[in-house]
Amino acid sequence: MTEKEIAEIRRRINIDKCSISDIRGCYVNENKEIVAQFSQFLGTVPKDEAAELLSIIKKVLSGQQGKNLIDIEFSNQQVIDSDEHNLLMKLRDSELKDDETVDEFYKHVISSLHIEGKYLILLTLDKYDVPSYTKDDIKLEDTDTIFKYLLCAICPVTMTKPALSYAVTEQQFKNIKTDWVISNPELGFMFPAFDDRQANIYDALYYIKNSSLSYDEFTDEIFNTDIPMPADTQKEVFNTIIEESVSEHCDFEVMQTVHNQISEMVAEHKAFKDEPPLTISKKTISNVLEYCNVPTENVEKFEKQYDESFGENARISPKNVVDVKKFEMKTADITIKVNPERLDLIKTKIIDGQKYILIKAEDDVAVNGVNISITEE
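Above: the chain's sequence. Below: its structure in token form.
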């Protein structure tokens, strides 16, 4: 799904816009037991509470693509005949009204999900009358496409902390009692995907709140397909591959060029929200290394380690491996943060056998908030 398509669906999850009428779910305790099941008709709850429920569920459509939002691709064989895809299709096509199918889904989630404490599994279904647009982006009134999709949100239930409050009307302090509250989703998904203004049953959109975590058993059970390693892990692995493969040729200029090239790609892609999420391959980085005159044997070593770590022909999100908004240099005792657009101010050099990081000071220099003078010795 493109950024624009995700935003279009996310805007729909609104009490005044979507066709969501009820939310099904179950309450799971610390022992992985279902202690309650419910089907909440939104028309019977106060509007502000219904809006709050929808705002929690729509969180599974938030975050950064490739980091919090991950495209799941099913194989042709899975779509033709597989237990995992059949279950998702039955949930959608039955509009969550088939109790046996819903119960089966709960069992798959609970058996494969390992999170501490209590949590809710929330399920809902929406039908979107997809509007058509002219080439000039003018919305047409008539529509002949209905996009029917389900959303799943898995929300931890946590205990609030005790606190002290002041009751103005009673003019006295009072203790606020602790209670169990629904937290924002830890993970969830949307099925099917919304591609080219229609349903794509070959894809789902998987959401994970914490990009450093992975729920491999859950994704194996629900999707049974390979997904990328967690975004934070991707960065660590990528850095290790660069450092080990490029070896002594991994100098400031190489890392500066890698950062600049990827930043330019991200900036160019940002202007096109209709485009699929930007990804890079091993060849993208290999070309940069070759441009920096890194020896062929080191480039080949990089490609080999890339394949071993990410998989052959794997593509990763550039934002997961390079922070385009900052550039940082570290020693054991010093951290230098540089505006990525002013890397020309930094140089590395060996003087009298000692390694130095040189910073050109064009403007005022402040130490602990106080401007200082720099004089010739």
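Residues 232-366 form one domain.
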